[in-house]
Amino acid sequence: xxxxxxxxxxxxxxxxxxxxxxxxxxxxxxxxxxxxxxxxxxxxxxxxxxxxxxxxxxxxxxxxxxxxxxxxxxxxxxxxxxxxxxxxxxxxxxxxxxxxxxxxxxxxxxxxxxxxxxxxxxxxxxxxxxxxxxxxxxxx
Length: 140
Prior knowledge:
Layout: H1 7-14, E1 19-24, H2 30-37, E2 42-45, H3 49-57, H4 59-65, E3 70-73, H5 81-92, E4 98-103, H6 106-115, E5 120-124, H7 130-135
Parallel strand pairs: 1-4, 1-5, 2-3, 3-4
Helix pairs in contact: 1-2, 3-4
């Protein structure tokens, strides 16, 4: 695995906020970064139709199943879940509850800004930088 320069920033944000949202273009490594940085967190993908339906149709049950230390991939698939997560985080009063990943789009960012204002650190991840490629020995 190639170490990402954003890993330290991601860890730092998780100590300050209940949520950290990792956005960026498709295939930029958002899920991999989250899993590398937080190997002890469980991961659930809302790309999976069953998980998506569970989150959309029973958000309380979803949160009871995934109450903390969770990576939620493709969170933009169920934007209504964010309001439920916000209420849960306000009750829990902990940092680092959820790492959210999603492709960068206006709708996701509006939902995050509206539902999680003041509770979320945002990290934008781009594809590998020259520095990261060099450090991994992938560039000559």
